[in-house]
TrEMBL record:
Membrane topology category: Multi-pass membrane protein
Protein name from the UniProt record: ABC transporter permease
Subcellular location: Cell inner membrane; Cell membrane
Species of origin: Alteromonas salexigens
Residues that span the membrane, as ranges: 100-121, 141-162, 201-221, 259-285, 305-327
Homology family: Belongs to the binding-protein-dependent transport system permease family. OppBC subfamily.
InterPro entries in alphabetical order: MetI-like, MetI-like_sf
Keywords: Cell inner membrane, Cell membrane, Membrane, Transmembrane, Transmembrane helix, Transport
Length: 343
């Protein structure tokens, strides 16, 4: 286990170094003067340019500049936004939890709905019920998330008027930003009607969460169904039937765990899709997450926000992917043996 943790830690550190190098290089890839891209200031004379260049180490070789950039990142000094003037660390600390919250609730819906339905479809494989579930999941998975979100806005917000069009909570509620997660902040807030505020927040959260969850649920159904069908064809299932075990005994003793293990590595792949879909949906529902924040930074050419925001999102995706894969190794130690055998 120590060797596994060491390999994962090494992979994590090397990946972050590569991402930091890409983030650092963006300052030179953006159009315009590098010094202006980093500071938001246009030097009025050579003396001012030289002072700013010394401050940002632009008068040093690239390696020294990159080392200085890493030191600033590790110390928490991520720079300031050109537009708001606020530290980027604070802005990302506010925007990132909103994205994580949206993606987490969508994943919970996908797990609660998708896995049981996938098990049921797999146990009824190649029957009319299975064909129906498989067709509906394939149809749902084929929707582009932005098209589905726009459809929800058109039907439920504009036509029926039963769901809010944007935001996380109504302006009637003044919710202090304690954790960045709106439901937790409401529970921690004082001097408000928490029941009414929670209802309003869930009302705002329903459409963006469903827009993401429908596609993720469809993917989960298809992965689970395929895994169950593969397990049903294994020799130990035939042996269990020959011993006279009932269908429920075979399902509970042999199918549930063995069909779930192959799904966990695929969930790591779904994390990237989930975060990406959440960032797309945020821009349509004006959800104050990292995706909407980055889009505004692009429109306003806030270059420091763009490169630090890219690094923050990439770090989040890499961290979650490695954690899911590590969790899969912990509950399925035999995977390490098979991987070594295939080398």
């Amino acid at each position: 286990m120590i060797n596994v943790l060491t390999r994962y830690l090494t992979l994590f550190v090397l990946t972050l170094l590569v991402l930091a190098a890409l983030s650092f290089s963006l300052a030179y890839l953006f159009p315009g003067d590098v010094l202006t891209n980093l500071t938001g200031l246009t030097p009025q004379n050579d003396m001012q340019r030289e002072a700013l260049a010394r401050q940002y180490k632009l008068d040093q070789p690239y390696v020294v500049q990159f080392y200085h950039y890493l030191g600033q990142l590790l110390s928490g000094n991520w720079g300031h936004s050109f537009i708001s003037g606020l530290p980027l660390r604070e802005e990302i600390g506010i925007a990132m939890p909103a994205t994580i919250e949206l993606a987490t609730y969508a994943m919970l819906i996908a797990l609660i709905v998708g896995v049981p339905v996938g098990y049921y479809a797999g146990m009824r494989s190649y029957t009319p019920i299975d064909h129906t579930i498989n067709s509906v999941s394939l149809f749902s998975y084929s929707f582009p998330v932005f098209w589905l979100a726009l459809l929800f806005i058109l039907v439920f917000s504009l036509e029926l008027g039963i769901a809010p069009l944007s935001g996380r909570v109504s302006l009637l509620f003044d919710i202090p930003d304690a954790t960045g997660f709106i439901l937790l902040d409401i529970l921690l807030a004082e001097d408000i009607d928490k029941g009414l505020a929670l209802s309003d927040a869930l009302h705002h959260m329903a459409l963006p969460t469903l827009a993401i969850a429908i596609i993720t649920t469809a993917a989960m159904i298809r992965m689970t169904r395929r895994s169950v069908i593969d397990v049903l064809g294994r020799p130990y299932i035939t042996a269990a039937r020959s011993r006279g075990l009932s269908r429920w005994q075979i399902f509970s003793r042999h199918i549930v765990r063995n069909a779930l293990l192959p799904i966990l590595p695929l969930m790591a792949i779904q994390i990237t899709t989930l975060i990406t879909n959440a960032m797309i949906v945020e821009t349509l529902f004006s959800w104050p997450g990292i995706g909407n924040w980055l889009i505004q930074a692009i429109y306003q050419r806030d270059y420091p926000a763009l490169r630090v925001g890219m690094l923050a999102v990439s770090t989040l995706v890499i961290t979650l992917t490695i954690l899911v894969d590590l969790f899969n190794r912990l509950i399925d130690p035999s995977r390490e043996k098979y991987e070594r055998a295939t080398v």
